[in-house]
Structure formats: C-alpha cells, structure tokens
Amino acid sequence: MSTAVVVGSGPNGLAAAVCLAAKGVQVTVLEAADQVGGGTRSGEAIVPGLLHDDCSAIHPMAVGSRFLRGFNLQRYGLSWRWPEIDCVHPLDDGSAGVLHRSVEQTAAGLGSDGTRWRLAFGYPAAQFDALSEDIMGPLLRMPHHPLKLARFGAPTVLPASAFARVFQTEQARALFGGVAAHAFRPLHYPMTSAIGMGILVAGHRHGWPVAAGGSQAIATALVTLLGDLGGTVETGVCVTTASQLPQADVTLFDLAPSAVAGILGGRLPQRVSRSFSSFRRGPGAFKVDFAVEGGVPWTNPDARRAGTVHLAGDYAELAATERDVHAGRMPARPFVLVGQQYLADPQRSVGNTHPVWTYAHVPNGYTVDATEAIVAQIERFAPGFRDRIVGQAVRSATQLAAYNANYVGGDIMTGAKDIRQLVFGPRITLSPYEVGIPGMYICSAATPPGPGAHGMCGANAAHLALDYLKRA
C-alpha cells in the first residue's frame, strides 16, 4: 500500500488527504495546532454557547466545490444555511447595494444598472458549474470549456476600477467594489476584477451560505470521512525540519511557501527555494468578534437581513482605503467586513445575544489596536451599535499569524494575489503544486485557485500525487 503524509489540516490539507485515502493510499495528517481545521475553526470566544468562526465564515466558493460535492459530506454532518440576503453594501445616505443569490432580484434593486448587472453576471452564473472546471485549477492549461472561459475571462483581466465604471449608480459600483476588495489589492491594479467576479458568479449560482454549527463543521466532516477511509490525523505535531517528516511515498504541504522552504531547506532546487523564500505577502486582517444584544441596529433595513455587510462608504472611498493599506498606511476608516452568520444559523446565538464577526483590512504586520476603528465604521451605518456590545474578542494581524502560521503578518489570503501569484502560484511554472522534489507537493491557498474552504488546492495537488504513485 502506498503511503502519504500531509502537513497541515486546513481545508486543503484535509481535501488532499481525503482524495488520496479514497484511492487506497494510507494517509497521515500532521497538524501543529491542537485543533484541526486551519482557517475553518470555530469556537466560543466570548459567551458560553455563543459560536464564532475563527476566520473563514461565508462560503460562496465552497458550497459548489466539485471536491466537497463529490464526497457527499451531508452524511458526515455538513449542511449549509443561507441568509435571506447574501451581501449588503450600505452608503451614507441610507441606501445600499444589495446582493441576492438571484441575478434577476439583484438587478431589479439596482435601478438603471439592472440591465448592466444582468449582462455582466447572468451568463457566467448560469454556466458556473462548467466554468468551475477551469477556474478552480491552474489557469495556464488547456481549458475544458474554452469558449465559456473566454467569455467569462475577458473582463477579469481588467482593474476593478475599470469594471466598476460600467455601472452608473453608486450602489452598483460600491457593491461590485466591495466584493472585488476581497482580493486585498488596490482596485486600480490589473486583474483585480478576477476575484470579485469569481465570488459574485459563484454566489449567483450557489449563494453565500454558512456551515450549520460553524465553519468547523467543514473540517469535522472531512476528518470523519478521512477516518472512514482509513486515514489518521495527529494534532500538536509541529514540523519545522525535513528530519521530522515520516517516511512516505508522497508528502503534501498545506503550508505557506516560506514554511515549505524552511522545512525542506537545501533539498529544494535553488530556483524553487528562491521563489518560495521571496513569496510576496498581502495586507493583513484585524479581527474582532462581538457579542451583541439584539443584533446590529443597521440604518439600512436590508442590512438587518444580510449574512455579510461590507462597510467602506462609496466606491471612491473604498478604492482610496485599499491603496492606503497596500502602501502600509492605516486608513482612518478601514474597509470592514461584517458577518451575521446567526441570521442563517440561529443556533450560534444565546437568547437575544448574537455573535457578530468582523475584520478590517490593515497593513501587513500591523501592531496597533484597530478595534475602535471597526466599531466606528459599524456605528457610522448602525448608530447605537456600541451600546449593544456585551463582549468582544480581538485577534490582531500579528495574533492571526500566531493562530495560523500560514497567515504571515495577518495575511489571511496566504500571499498577495498580484498577477503573477494569482496566475502561477508560488513560482512561475505550469505545475504550481510541484516543489521540484519527486513525490512532494504544496497544496495551500498560495496555489491556484487560492483562498476559500473549497478544498480545490488540495484536491488538485492530490491528483498529481496519485499520478506520481501510478508511475512510481
């Protein structure tokens, strides 16, 4: 029987382990933390019984994942819950851009931009399940659906600032810009439309759900499935050198490229070592979880029904904010993302006290407390929020890095999503999962298709490992 070691139990590491074990490989997963899951961990951070997601929380890219759907994880307790409204981007005048799962319903709320929204997202949303075969893997390969990919891909090369000019209303521009800003990149840079379009199209096809019982349910389901397939997980095992790796036919790393370079050291080819060691990091996140009595008193009524709320003012303010953060300057009014997962999954609340999940974009390695900036941004669109806070838990950019070593400087994207790293991953190659040592692969969110709980980075790397085992 072939053997495999997977270092790291984030969703990609677990996905790789499951794919290998399903083909009869004996798999051992090594996890440095005491709890599996990486970015999909959840816990009771403030009030007993009040459930917060530690990082990854809303899952438009995971719910339709070919990997997750292929293993019928409902059998292992994973179920999805959808909010009434996917996302709202409120403006200072009380209006908002409102994102529904339905393209038509979203378009209907955007006034004169309705037709433009429908033209931009209607066709690719209808074709998303076919498109995902191409966009959820390495981009530089022969596509399965070249015409569909070309039609979808042409606008993605644009800066988000250029794409936003398609829309005439501030509500539509802000709504698109807030989703595009998930890339943690200045919005005037080329290809910043790509992540925004990918999330929007996936959401219009499958919605923006949460995992019932917290994002930890994704990891728990995968670990249970892995156990049924004969695999094992060992927690509290921190691998820092190659000598600590058990003997195995294949080894996969759900780690940041710099960590892989540190472990393998001189065994890596010099060109790979240089690329991994110089891998560029993106801005950081500053996360605050709140326990809120009665929920957030949003001025805009749609925000009270939305699973996600983006806070940044209009498009121009958002673009300026992202430029500042990328340049290492902390804006007075940062882009704040608010998660109200309890609206779709009420079991997370305790009576009338609700968990509110937030983070702000901050410079990488930012060490100053940004809690007040987050509270002020919420107060801006929900006066009286401050008075409803009954508890809070903070993870700064540096604390996020301590919580998950892949989040260097608070970079929850596992690397800057600039053109080179978005297209190629950690190094310029047609095979971004290979590290230049036969039988060894990297499968973290630093590789295509990037961040999210979809598991496709791990699944893609595992397929290469299986091909290697067949040839060996």
TrEMBL record:
InterPro entries linked to this entry: FAD/NAD-bd_sf
Protein name: Phytoene dehydrogenase-related protein
Lineage, highest ranks first: Bacteria, Bacillati, Actinomycetota, Actinomycetes, Mycobacteriales
